Amino acid sequence: MTTDNPAPEPAPTPAPAPERRRWLFRLVGAAALVAVVLIGAGVVGGWPGWLPQVSNPFSERTTDRSQPVVLKSIQDLSRFTAASGNFEVVIDVERDRRFIPDVILNERTLFVAAGTVDAHVEFGGLAEGALVVDEATNSVQVTLPPPQLEPPNLDHDRSYVYAEQRGVINRFRDFLGEDPNRQQQVFQLAERRIAEAALASGLAERAEENTRKLLQGMLRSLGFETVSVTFVSP
To answer: Is there a smaller number of Cβ atoms within 10 Å at the N or the C end of the chain?
Structure first.
């Protein structure tokens, strides 16, 4: 008696290679999308609390490669800072070309500049006879050079660009780095305007008054009854 064995089932046909590649690409793309979303969440809004804390491999870092500070010189000062003025100015500068639309070539900057100017009186190197004492009248005569205004000192924490308009060509030049001193020119103009304002503000006269009061109070405490302080240009 002959027993019929069932015929073996045919082996499954493997999926074509292009179909496997498409699934592989989809899997890699989905993983990359998840990674980008998670990294973006960590950078923008903080790492989600329900995920384990993993450091962001694309986090920003700052490397300081500055050189050590080198002392160039030391100067002995013998001056009295008698007054200080606090100034603020809005710089509105525009540079353009005639017959060329502003959208193509134009540069306008509104810069708020804040800074101080000090007025000092130089006590060092006084000429002979700058201090004359008259014991008979118990008086003293002091002759000093007039106060000098120091260069403006801009406060970078309080100075800022309020608005800026730039044409297409100007932006392209910025991209190429053709005008690296553009900001420096605005700063220099602000310093010049503040220096001019300090000259007209009466800061030097206030420095004279404060110096006179200082010396009169100090010399009278030493016993002089009459103290005269004059300012004479050399």
So the answer is: N
The structure's pTM equals 0.62
Those residues with Cβ within 8 angstroms of residue 143's Cβ, 6 or more apart along the chain or in another chain: 126, 127, 129, 130, 131, 132, 230, 231, 232
| Torsion angles phi and psi, residue 6, rounded to 5 | -65, 145
Helix then strand count (H, E) for the chain reads 4, 8
pLDDT at position 145 over 60: yes
Neighbours of 90 (CB within 10 A): 11
Q: 146: burial class by Cβ within 10 Å (0-12, 13-18, 19+)?
A: middle
Taking only the tens place, the pLDDT of each residue in 82-109 is 999 999 999 887 765 565 555 555 577 7
User: Cβ–Cβ contacts within 10 Å for residue 47, how many?
Assistant: 16
CA distance linking residue 78 with residue 74, whole number of Å: 13
Q: d(Cα 88, Cα 103) in Å, to the nearest integer?
A: 30
Measured distance CA(204)–CA(209) in Å, rounded: 9
| Per-residue pLDDT band at 123 (split at 50, 70, 90) | confident
Q: Tell which wins on pLDDT, 53 or 222.
A: 222
Q: Domain-by-domain residue ranges, the chain?
A: 20-48, 79-231
